[in-house]
Amino acid sequence: MARVFVYGTLKKGQPNYKHMINTAKGLAKFQGRGRTVEKYPLVIAGKYNIPYMLNIPGTGHHIAGEIYSVDEQMLQFLDEFEGCPDMYQRTLMRIQVVEWEAKGGAGEARAAADGVLECFVYSTATYPPEWVGLPYYDSYDSSGKHGLSYVLRESR
């Protein structure tokens, strides 16, 4: 099992969460909520209003998201879904646990020094330079007050 931190459309209540609970794509078990230890720019970009975490450590905000434990099948699905490695790159990042819900695994979160876990995160280092000038968010909601509604793949 691998740990994945999701901050965009794959979170609960967001447009692509259905993929996280589709066991035909693999297993993803919600573990808890967290924030990136380092600051990153989270932007909403492109004609489909897709959330991107730009891989520029030290700039932006501590990004809020959810921590999942996923099996190899789900990890492979997420790589394909996220267009890895062209659109997003899967990298290990340090995530501060904010709230831990995993059954029987609370000790694991506490065992990590200072409640920090290493999780895979889909961020991007391949983006148009003008994206750096877009507004930065600390949390993503597809129907947030930014007014930039995400366009589902099946609607593109």
TrEMBL record:
GO process annotations (BP): modified amino acid catabolic process
Alphabetical list of Gene3D superfamilies matching this protein: Gamma-glutamyl cyclotransferase-like (3.10.490.10)
GO cellular component terms given for this protein: cytosol
Active site: 82 (proton acceptor)
SUPFAM superfamilies listed in its UniProt record: Gamma-glutamyl cyclotransferase-like
Broad class of enzyme this protein falls into: lyase
Catalysed reaction equations from the record: epsilon-(gamma-L-glutamyl)-L-lysine = 5-oxo-L-proline + L-lysine
Keyword Cytoplasm set for record: no
Stretches assigned to the Gamma-glutamylcyclotransferase AIG2-like domain: 4-122
Keywords: Lyase, Transferase
Family: Belongs to the gamma-glutamylcyclotransferase family.
Record's function text: Catalyzes the formation of 5-oxo-L-proline from L-gamma-glutamyl-L-epsilon-lysine.
Name recorded for this polypeptide: Gamma-glutamylaminecyclotransferase
